[in-house]
Structures are given as C-alpha cells and as structure tokens.
Write a structure and sequence with these properties.
Length: about 280
C-alpha cells in the first residue's frame, strides 16, 4: 500500500495532476457524442426535403457524418491523455491500406453505388437494360443493384459492373420506335401489301401520329419481299402494341389474299434408270 502511494501518489495528488486532463477529455467526449448524434439526425431530417437525393443515400450519409465526428472526438480525447495520435494515425493508415487492397472489389462496388445514388441514371421501378441484361429495378443498394427480369427472374448486379456498363433506361424515354419486318410473297402486289399494312397501323390507337409511321421495301430476299414497318408508341405501350400489330398484320394479309411465305426447301432427287444386266452367255 505504502509502496503504491509512493509510486502513484495520493488520490489528491493524482487528481491534481490528471484531473484537468480527465475533465477536459470527458467534456470533449460528451460534446463529440452529442454532436455526432445531432449531425446524424440533421442529415436524416434534411434528407426528407432533398428530393433530388435518393432515399437510399440518406442513411449512409447520416452514418458517415456520425462516424466522422466520433473519429475526430476519439482522437481529441486520446491527445488529452497523452497518446501520440501521429503514430496511431500511421498504424491505422497501414491497416486501412491492407484492408483496402484485400477488399478492392467490395470498395469499388461501394464507390460505384454512391455514384449511382447521386447521379441516378435510373430509379426504383424503371425498366432498364444493363450490358444486355434487362429488367425492372427493385433496389439500389450500396453494394449491388437488384432487378427483376421481364419474365420474373431476380437479378443481382454488382454496382461496379453497372457503373461501367452501357445503361438504357426505357422508362425515361418519351417514346419508343418499333421495327417489324414483314415478308410477303415475291409474286404479291407490293403496293397492295404496303397499303394493307398502313391501314392496320392507322387503326391502332397506341401508334403515335408523330413521327408518322412508315412502311417500305427493305430487302429482296430469297422467294419473298421484306417490308419494314416502323411506328412510334409511348414506352408503356411498346410491347402490347407490338404484339397486337404482329397479329393484325397476319390476319389482314391473309384476308387480302397476300401470302406470307414460310421458309421451306424443295429437294429434287433424280432417279437413276435401273442398269440392264446382260443375259449370261450360254
């Protein structure tokens, strides 16, 4: 006991020696903790008013602001206790570099996710195509983007792949153009066929009048003439109108006696005359 008092001093001496530092450290800790909580609440509150920022980004910004203030507070408290924060920063920097190299792909996904959430090339509910993968956006997370394909299959894409790929947003298009190739018999009356297809287009209410739809010869193929039909619709009407027009084209062409040829091959196999056998010599 006496040896401990001789080494550390009496409680009063300890309080006189370390009291101011402990008091200031506690004060800094309380203020920093309070400021961190206030900053997180403020970001969440302002996030409800920032309509241009995706709602998924608000919790992340709140966490980042809170952790930043807590980190600065922790460093200030350690300095009050005489800890060399420069050495601590060096150790943390080396550890961060090691972790960063190990989690390179994950950090790339996080960075790409932040860019997607800020730039917003698409929103939840948009129909998009990313590098050949199509579907409706279900969620945009920090690490990945989740879609549901048009045939109902869930799709998960890493944000880094989405960010670097070509993105087509069908929902944001003001209108979409459909191209349909209709083949008619090479002996058919082309003018009559074109007039028939144009009449079908004019009777479809989902086809926009401007730009005007068009029908013309696009190719002289083997045994048929291909007609290219181009028409514009609203994005929501694209697939229903395309399916309906395809059916109506076939029905009207049949009704008008215009043949839509089916690819076929005719094989002609010549029959060889039976060889005459000479009678055996007697």
């Amino acid at each position: 006991m006496e040896q401990g008092i001789a080494t550390w001093g009496t409680p009063i001496e300890l309080l006189e020696r370390h009291g101011p530092g402990v008091s200031s450290a506690l004060f800094i800790a309380v203020v920093g903790w309070t400021a961190a909580a206030w900053a997180a609440r403020s970001v969440r509150s302002l996030g409800k008013k920032w309509t241009q920022v995706d709602a998924t980004l608000i919790p992340l910004l709140a966490s980042v602001s809170r952790l930043t203030i807590l980190t600065v507070t922790t460093m200030a408290v350690l300095e009050r206790f005489g800890v060399d924060t420069k050495s601590l920063f060096a150790v943390l920097g080396a550890a961060g570099l090691t972790v960063g190299l190990a989690l390179k792909d994950t950090l790339s996904d996080v960075a790409a996710g932040l860019v997607l959430l800020v730039l917003r090339p698409f929103d939840v509910g948009d129909a998009i195509e990313v590098d050949g993968t199509s579907g409706v956006v279900d969620a945009i997370d920090v690490f990945q983007t989740r879609l549901t394909s048009f045939d109902g299959v869930p799709i998960t894409l890493p944000n880094s792949k989405v960010r670097s790929a070509k993105i087509q947003n069908f929902t944001r298009a003001q209108r979409r153009r459909m191209d349909l190739t209709i083949g008619v018999s090479a002996t058919a009356d082309i003018a009559h066929a074109i007039a028939t297809l144009r009449d079908v287009l004019s009777s479809e209410p989902r086809v926009l009048p401007e730009p005007a739809p068009s029908v013309d010869v696009v190719e002289l193929a083997e045994g048929k003439v291909n007609l290219l039909v181009r028409a514009w619709t609203l994005p929501a009407d694209f697939f229903p109108a395309r399916l309906e027009l395809t059916r109506h084209f076939k029905e009207r062409l049949d009704a008008e006696g215009i043949v839509v040829p089916i690819p076929q091959r005719e094989l002609h196999i010549p029959l060889r005359e039976p060889e005459r056998r000479s009678a055996p010599f007697l």
